[in-house]
Amino acid sequence: MPDSVASGQRFPETVKARYFRVDRRDIVYLKFILEAYEGLSTMSTADRKEGIVRISFSTWAEQDIGDLLAALAADIELVEVSDPMEAINA
After folding, report:
1. Which one of 4, 6, 31, 46 is least enclosed by Cβ atoms within 10 Å?
2. Residue 77 lies in a domain
3. Does pTM top 0.85 for this prediction?
4. Which Pfam families does the annotation name (predicted)?
């Protein structure tokens, strides 16, 4: 957590999102793991049929999310897609 949060200071947060293709069988598992890290991110399903998920997070959590997703990619298929609509329509 950034020092400004720990000290109680308010600052504008920027939210980022990354999209991934995940095996549909792993969507619930991925959501469970992400929710275990309370406040780090949120995940929503952009296209259940194609297994496209959106992971949203504050910029202060970007490094932690990157590290977590890299570790998860060793266990499940987790392929980042730059354009979720293109991936859905592929």
Report:
1. 6
2. yes
3. no
4. DUF4911
